[in-house]
């Protein structure tokens, strides 16, 4: 569903929204945000919201950048209080001649004409116990393994909380289960467009860490937090490419060096990374990736451009 500036302003007024988080990423893909008040929102839509960028990776030289909220990305943060609600919107960045990854992805979608390509996603993470001071102990929350059930699997509530909160944010999940490692969980998202998929990756990590903290745990997205146990990765794929399957697969193979930099194991071969069985699946994506640039590079690669 498409939203306009006026739709968002009306929602803020009617739903007692007191804080608007303007969300963006630095050039390394790390999520950042600044909260503004409702009386600043109309101006932010019209003129943008300027912030000091001297300590933001990739934008130090610009000194200031301007955030332009995208009304189509409005989402309530469902775990925040119902009085004085909090919403968030992703923002485009204006920073002189410096790269804006979100704009880069939007431009790539337009240039390749691949606005109809949909991506599915699977996320893995470990849930660790905290010590009395709230520090990560690296002790897994349980000793379950692949698709085990309760009581051996203790992650059911966390996964449920994550899925329900994502749903309230209009992000659909299509499956969740205990993964291979002790305390390791996996959640799958329904297919969506490249821009949505990039921002779903950013949102998923944030929601998961929040839900884990609310359950007295820490969600760990590092690739191999436990020696000799399964790594945590993101799996993404092109959903039902149909007659383009072989063309996209061959283009990915020819341009694999472009994708390799986003993998947890950058020495992995193409054959160990990409599968082609109806869908085209890319395994081993690192959570440290700039997801705007990742999806931009995937679109450029499969298009052969």
Give a quick summary of the entry.
The chain is of the alpha+beta class. The protein has helices at residues 5-14, 38-47, 101-112, 156-168, 194-214, 245-254, 256-260, 270-273, 291-303; strands spanning 17-25, 31-36, 49-52, 64-69, 75-76, 85-94, 119-130, 136-140, 173-178, 184-192, 217-220, 234-238, 274-277, 279-285.
Largest β sheet strand count, sense and barrel closure: 8 strands, antiparallel
Query: Low-confidence runs (pLDDT<50, min 5 residues)?
Result: none
Task: Report the span from N to C terminus.
Answer: 30 Å
Helix content: 25-40%
Mean pLDDT rating: 94
Structural class: alpha+beta
Topology pattern, helix = H, strand = E: HEEHEEEEHEEHEEHEEHHHEEH
Shape: globular
The total of helices stands at 9
Strand count = 14
Strand content: 25-35%
Radius of gyration: 20 Å
Task: Give the tags.
8-stranded antiparallel β-sheet, 9 helices
Can you walk through the features of this model?
The structure is a single chain. With 305 residues, the protein is an alpha+beta fold. The protein has helices at residues 5-14, 38-47, 101-112, 156-168, 194-214, 245-254, 256-260, 270-273, 291-303; strands spanning 17-25, 31-36, 49-52, 64-69, 75-76, 85-94, 119-130, 136-140, 173-178, 184-192, 217-220, 234-238, 274-277, 279-285. The strands form two sheets. Strands 7, 8, 9, 10, 11, 12, 13 and 14 form an eight-stranded antiparallel beta sheet that branches. The model has no long low-confidence stretch (mean pLDDT 94).
């Amino acid at each position: 569903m498409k939203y306009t500036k006026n739709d968002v302003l009306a929602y803020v007024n009617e739903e007692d929204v007191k804080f608007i988080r303007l969300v963006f990423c630095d050039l390394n893909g790390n999520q950042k945000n600044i909260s503004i008040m409702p009386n600043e929102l109309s101006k932010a839509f019209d003129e943008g919201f300027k912030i000091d960028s001297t300590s933001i990776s990739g934008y130090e030289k610009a000194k200031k950048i301007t955030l332009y909220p995208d009304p189509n990305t409005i989402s309530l943060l469902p775990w925040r209080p119902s009085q004085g609600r909090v919403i968030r919107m992703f923002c485009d960045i204006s920073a002189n001649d410096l790269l804006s990854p979100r704009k880069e992805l939007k431009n790539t979608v337009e240039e390749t004409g691949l606005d109809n390509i949909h991506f599915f996603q699977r996320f893995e993470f470990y849930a660790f116990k905290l010590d009395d001071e709230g520090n990560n102990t690296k002790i897994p929350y349980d000793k379950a393994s692949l698709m085990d059930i309760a009581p051996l699997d203790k992650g059911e509530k966390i996964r449920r909380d994550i899925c329900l909160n994502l749903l309230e944010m209009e992000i659909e999940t299509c499956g969740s289960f205990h993964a291979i490692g002790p305390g390791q969980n996996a959640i799958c998202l329904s297919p969506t467009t490249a821009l949505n998929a990039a921002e779903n990756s950013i949102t998923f990590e944030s929601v998961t860490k929040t839900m884990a903290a609310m359950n007295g745990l820490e969600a760990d997205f590092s690739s191999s937090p436990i020696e000799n146990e399964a790594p945590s990765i993101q799996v993404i794929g092109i959903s039902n490419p149909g007659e383009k399957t072989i063309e996209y697969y061959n283009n990915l193979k020819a341009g694999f060096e472009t994708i390799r930099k986003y993998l947890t194991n950058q020495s992995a071969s193409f054959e160990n990374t990409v599968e082609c069985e109806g869908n085209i699946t890319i395994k081993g994506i690192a959570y440290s990736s700039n997801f705007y640039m990742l999806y931009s590079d995937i679109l450029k690669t499969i298009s052969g451009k």
